[in-house]
Write a structure and sequence with these properties.
By secondary structure, the chain is of the alpha+beta class. It is built from one helix and three strands, in the order H-E-E-E.
Length: 48
């Protein structure tokens, strides 16, 4: 289970890096959710 958490943390770090570079903004939030479908809220600068 600890390996899965490490993988998720790594994926969040990579996704956050890419989202910040592509958007050109540093205050972007990326998160994973088991219950939600993929979603991007550009006005709130969030991606799930």
């Amino acid at each position: 289970m600890q390996s899965l958490q490490l993988q998720n943390d790594t994926l969040i770090d990579i996704a956050t890096f890419l989202a910040r570079r592509w958007s050109g903004k540093e205050n972007v939030i990326v998160g994973f959710s088991k219950t939600r479908q993929n979603e991007t809220r550009l006005k709130e600068k969030k991606s799930y």
